[in-house]
Amino acid sequence: MNKGITFLTNLILIVILIGLTSVTNDRQSVQENRLKEIKIIKSNNNFVNRSQLLDFLEFNNIQLDMLISDSYSNYKLEKLVESHPAIKNVDVFSNQKGEIKIRVQQKKAIARVKSSTDDYFLDEYGLEMLKPDNCTQQLIVFTGDISNNDHKEIFSLINTIKLSEFWSAQITQVHFEDDDVILIPRVGNQKIKVGNLRNIYEKLDKLYHFYKVVIPTKGWEFYKEINLKYNNQIVCTKK
Questions:
Q1: Is the pLDDT of residue 29 over 50?
Q2: What are the Cα distances from residue 200, in Å, to 73, 105, 153, 154, 205?
Q3: Which of 113, 49, 55 lies closest to 86 in space, CA to CA?
């Protein structure tokens, strides 16, 4: 008799537990959510702000204060926000109260490309990201006849320049002209022709030694062109 009562009691408790769980799930599935916080980690660029992010979500038919819990997932929301061209990484958190928190990490721009047909940035992976708007960071500008096929070499050149404080300060522009690449320096108004960007580290090293040995005697304004295209020599043209 006691075993029967115990079994019946346990069965009732299980039924009640299942019922409560079902009610809780039903409530959560129809629960309206609200945006608790958007945290955008600051960067040198600050391409996107809270208002722009909300506009982006609204453009994609997402209004965070009107979402029903069973109509979205944190993962889907993360992937949507990450599709913004200025955003690198996103974390979305939500709790049982329906409060949503979004943490955003922005991409980093390493160069600006102003080709004959377009104007955009390259991100830290060497990929095209977006057109300039409110970026205030000083970046090396790549101009001229540039196509997507040149992005890999541009990315490699940027990484080479970043290895040196001197070149990071000295090179302000890189111009693509026919089959030639021309470096535009900050100090001195001469054109520096390097041909293609292969072996660019060695070419910059050769130019650095030229700066150390020749420029102190001739001065920064003595030459109008420095040509590094040829192996083991530097060809200069006087003004």
A1: no
A2: 48, 32, 10, 11, 8
A3: 49
Q: What is the 3-state secondary structure (H, E, C) of 19-62?
A: HHHHHHHHHHHCCECEEEEEEEECCCCCCCCHHHHHHHHHHCCC
Q: Domain limits of the chain?
A: 34-106, 109-238
pLDDT tens readout for residues 201-227: 999 999 999 999 988 888 888 888 999
Report the pLDDT averaged over residues 169-176. Answer: 94
Residue 30 has pLDDT above 60, yes or no: no
Q: What is the spatial order of strands in the sheet that 34-41 belongs to?
A: 34-41, 99-106, 87-94
Alpha helices by DSSP H, listed for the chain, are 2-29, 50-59, 74-82, 151-162, 165-170, 200-213, 215-218
Q: What is the pLDDT of residues 41-67, one digit of tens each?
A: 877 777 888 888 888 988 988 877 665
Dist CA 195 CA 233 (whole Å): 13
Whether residue 206 contacts residue 228, with contact meaning beta carbons closer than 8 Å, is answered with yes
Q: How far apart, in whole angstroms, are the C-alpha atoms of residue 122 and residue 113?
A: 7
CATH numeric code, 109-238: 3.40.50.11690
Tokens linked to 135? 């970026």
One-letter amino acid at 23 equals: V
Whether domain 34-106 has CATH 3.10.20.310: yes
User: What CA–CA distance (Å, rounded) separates 86 from 124?
Assistant: 11
More confident residue, 102 or 34: 102
Q: What is the mean pLDDT of the chain?
A: 81
